[in-house]
User: Fold these one by one.
Assistant:
Number 1:
Amino acid sequence: MSARVFFPRMGVSGVDWPGDTAAMIQTRLVDPATEEEITAPGQPGELRFQGAATFTGYYNLPELTAKAFDAQGYYKTGDLFEIAGDGPSPRYYRFVGRCKDIIVRGGVNISPAELDDLLSSHPALREAAAIGMPDDVLGERVCAVIVPASASAPDLKELTNWLRTQGLAVFKLPERVEVVDALPRNAMNKVVRSDLRAQVLAKIGAA
């Protein structure tokens, strides 16, 4: 397991980790849309924690403090993880992205980071990223934004068939494909998903 992707699931009933740190904190995953706790593997949620290592709030900023913690006193990290590991009590969290990037399709949370990795490994693409597109029925639908490696770009059917062979769940499959010249990136070379979404919406509106 990569240390950059998997983290110990500490402070959870039924999951024991050695050391003093594990005994001083509690963690949990929460659906940021419903505030329901997530206890099953494979469903992304916001990682939240509390304990001796957690600060109690921002100095003289009660409104900011209130937004930083949930009703149970857990700190909201803003990071999306899912429960991972074998057995009845999986021992790890797997990092899947940021809450602000999450795609909510028909009430189901989809982390675009997983799609980014799979799409970018397609042999016909130079780079790619997934975004949520507004939808009147489902709220959002998954859109694959691609930069072809040559003049020929794979269509939606080709991409979804290929993603199925990579083991991607059906509900995560893109329902739209948009071709761009390049993905907007920040100084850290990370895709700026908000800018990409605005770019695609502007392109569609101008079409």
Note: The radius of gyration is 19 Å.
Number 2:
Amino acid sequence: MIQTSDFLVVGGGIIGINVAREIKRRYPQARLILLEKEDSCAKHASGRNSGVLHAGFYYTANSLKARFTRLGNEILTRYCEEKSLPINHCGKLVVAKDASELPALDELLRRAKANGVELHSISDQEAQTIEPRVKTFQRALFSPKTSSVDPVQVTFSMQKDAETEGVEVKLGEPYLKRTLEGIVTSKGTYSVGYFVNCAGLYADKIALDFCFSEAYRILPFKGLYLYSEEQEGAVRTHIYPVPDLRNPFLGVHFTITVDGHVKIGPTAIPALWREQYTGLERFKLDEFADVLWREIGLFFNAGFNFRKLAFEEVQKYSRSKMVALASVLAKEVNLHHYVRWGRPGIRAQLVNIREKKLEMDFVIQGDSKSLHVLNAVSPGFTCSVPFSEYVCDRMEEYRKTKS
């Protein structure tokens, strides 16, 4: 028996849930189904990210990330406070290791001003009043609006909201394929009025079934954090290095968890299959072959220095290397404090396979029958609510066009 649904959203992460909620707000009488392949939501990127609510000063003013990060931070901060969800208003320091990095601090200040984000240039002495252990050259930046939350609790809370609002959340039901009859899942077939793909690591594969993502593929990067055994409050605020603004990774940094503990990382190690979390868990031979082939191609032919990036990131599997990188940012960073690796995450990084480059901003494609969120990487969690509204705006534009 074929089921019918006005809207079908695939992917039970923070973005899929918020897209479903926004569609339901716009079409309250419509039947809306959200499919999640796992037995609960937030099993992948949404539940495995750093938990940092970013402020929005890294991104150029013409980017979607700049547009949504500041607003997303405000919305999620208010949401956690209203729902009594834990939030740590710890702030963030961005530090320089030497004079060569001071111009980059100035560039971040310019971006913050252009994006309407509160960001302060402070002296090294002022930085040490915020965090006595910090190390910086002459000056630093302080972001008071950066904070930490528990991403699993936030996602579960929003899932509960979605269900209360009338979204039908179906767990343990993966998308399988698209046929002439409709959308085939592990439990049946759906005849769908409009289909929305928020499948994260598999968004490109699903999009190909609809003749999208032809120039794009997901390249998975594995993120690992090392947790400190120091007591709560050993470090008071996030401490980040000056980033290389040419790539989407922010470098090894100190993250303060929602309960006040310290972790350092993350890595951005090229993964060998899409859900390579632990050992051979979720190993798929076809994915391994495809991902490895693409990584080899980027190693020799990328439009960016993938070879250097991969070499540097693989070294971070070493605890001593990770701690050495962190020790540039703060004093009294000892290897014996950092003995426990946290739960791995996978970044679903989109690659333009024609231009051989990493996509730095959000990417959406669609038509009158379907929409596909192809790239929603960091700070996708922070941006999730306003970005989902944007996705629905695009969906309505696509629905008015003819395929």
Note: The first strand starts at residue 2 and ends at 10.
